[in-house]
Amino acid sequence: MRLSFLRNRNPVDTPLKRRRLRLGLTQEAMAEQCGINKRTYEGYEQARRVPKKEHLQALMQVADLPWEAFAFPLQYLRDHPEQDAEYAERASGHGRPPRTG
Fold first, then answer.
1. CATH code for position 42
2. Which DSSP category does 52 fall into?
3. Is residue 95 part of a domain?
4. Mean pLDDT in the chain?
5. Measuring CA to CA, which residue among 59, 54, 57 is closest to residue 44?
6. CA quadruple 22, 25, 29, 33: dihedral, nearest 10
7. Residue 91 domain flag
């Protein structure tokens, strides 16, 4: 069964990206923790790809997000505004871990 409803065609932001930034991880580190190729992870974070079942399970576990965050990302963000202030701070570069390499 293909879960095409998980696709967010116009992402500005996603719960997965917010959670990764909140955890202070790079995309590469998050992908590694999930056992996913970095490019594949980027597609999931940007809602350009629909996660395979096993990848979805890993993403949910590592990011500690419910499936609704992947199925309905914009609704999930609207329903969880408490993450906005912390996300805004990290996204602006303050509180983000320094880049290495």
1. 1.10.260.40
2. P
3. no
4. 80
5. 59
6. -30
7. no
Residue 20 exposed, middle or buried by CB count within 10 Å (0-12, 13-18, 19+): buried
Q: Is it the case that residue 8 has pLDDT exceeding 60?
A: no
d(CA 31, CA 63): 11
**Residue range of the domain that includes 69:** 13-77
Over the stretch 58-88, which tens digit does the pLDDT of each residue have?
Answer: 999 999 999 999 888 888 888 988 766 566 6
Cα dist. 51→35, 79, 87, 91, 100 in Å? 13, 22, 23, 24, 28
Counted domains in the chain: 1
Asked whether the beta carbons of 62 and 30 are under 8 A apart, the reply is yes
In a domain, 88, yes or no: no
- Distance between CA atoms of residues 101 and 99, nearest Å: 7
